[in-house]
Specification:
With 203 residues, this protein is mainly α. It has helices spanning 3-27, 37-44, 48-54, 58-78, 99-105, 107-114, 119-137, 149-169, 176-188. The chain has two domains: 1-55, Arc Repressor Mutant, subunit A; 62-188, Orthogonal Bundle (Tetracycline Repressor, domain 2), CATH 1.10.357. Residues 13-73 form the HTH tetR-type domain.
């Protein structure tokens, strides 16, 4: 690779990073739907030519932000099982769970996206990506044939993402270590009965 090419590549990386940061900065102040490309380039201190050299639209820029996060999310999700042939769920430890660390390390970005009008898009992309890899990469050795495996996957992912986004929306009230520990406890908790508070209320 020539020195000129390296310089060009570095300029592209810098400009794309500046545009992403500008978009997120603006999204912290106003809805994505009201942000213009002119505002993005002015905030990033670039011109429209630079923007269109990298992206066709502000939606493509947003997609890149979300896709980068989703890729990191999948890497953190795979962490407990990517180097083993058999993933023993009942032996899963809190320290092997990396997904909360991923969200905490990107807390600023997730806080902006969670409070924005693009939250449904973020959740949909992440759900679709997690559903795909759980169905392709995790094959349960002991299957209950009465349980629809696709519904099981949907149930588990919604539960996980629901827990995570509740944590994000609470402004990361708990530490990643606490959330990791709680997730393991939830996964292993198998209640057989629950005392009700209903009896006698209609008397």
């Amino acid at each position: 690779m020539s020195e000129n090419t390296k310089k060009t590549d570095r300029r592209v990386v810098r400009s794309k990073l500046a545009l992403r940061e500008a978009l997120l900065s603006l999204m912290a102040q106003k809805p994505f739907s009201t942000i213009s490309i002119t505002e993005i380039v002015e905030c990033a201190n670039y011109n429209r030519g630079t923007f269109y050299a990298n992206y066709e639209s502000k939606e493509e820029l947003l997609d890149e932000v979300i896709d980068n996060l989703t890729l990191q999310l999948l890497q953190s999700f795979r962490a407990p099982y990517e180097h083993v042939e058999v993933f023993r769920i009942n032996e899963l430890t809190a320290t092997s769970v990396q997904i909360f660390e991923h969200f905490y390390q990107n807390a600023g970005i997730y806080t902006v996206l969670t409070k924005s009008d693009v939250l449904p898009k973020l959740k949909e992309k992440m759900f679709t990506a997690l559903k795909k890899i759980t169905q392709e990469e995790l094959i349960y050795s002991e299957q209950d044939t009465a349980i629809d495996q696709e519904l099981l996957s949907i149930y588990a992912i919604h539960a996980l993402l629901g827990l995570i986004f509740h944590w994000v929306e609470s402004d990361f009230k708990y530490s990643p270590a606490y959330m990791q520990d709680q997730l393991i406890r939830l996964v292993n908790w198998r209640p057989t009965s629950a005392k009700t508070a209903v009896k006698g209320t209609m008397d």
